[in-house]
Write a structure and sequence with these properties.
With 125 residues, the chain is mainly α. It contains 7 helices and no strands. It is elongated. The termini are far apart.
Length: 125
């Protein structure tokens, strides 16, 4: 089935089930049934999950606001993004990223950290 790959390739755009039907050559009902059997999710749930995973990666990889990330991954509403993020990960976007950074010991969780600035350790490294 081509639909999951097509969704991944187009995850930052609005998902149209008709487009998936065209790509996969299936009716709406057949697409839904096959997609659910293959992924355990509906096409819309799969699309949302991909977007939220990408958003989490963006939040962890840089100094991006939740609203910037929301728009970058294709959401049209930052508040809708925040609600869906909270439902998916159990914490609002900024807090989730901060807690993950802290848990893995990421120095960029420290206020004032600048990843572009070359840091050395005290031993002269």
């Amino acid at each position: 089935m081509l639909a999951p790959g097509w969704i991944r390739d187009n995850q930052n755009t609005q998902l149209r089930i008709e487009d998936l039907c065209d790509v996969s050559g299936m009716s709406r009902a057949s697409l839904h049934r096959h997609f659910l059997a293959m992924t355990g999710l509906s096409p819309l749930q799969y699309h949302k999950q991909l977007r939220l995973q990408e958003a989490r990666q963006l939040l962890l990889s840089g100094d991006h606001s939740a609203s910037d990330v929301a728009f970058a991954v294709g959401y049209e509403s930052a508040s809708q993004f925040s609600r869906e993020y909270l439902r998916q990960f159990g914490a609002p976007p900024a807090r989730d990223a901060r807690e993950i950074r802290r848990a893995i010991g990421n120095p960029s969780a420290t206020p004032g950290w600048n990843a572009d600035f070359p840091h050395t350790d005290v031993a002269g490294g």
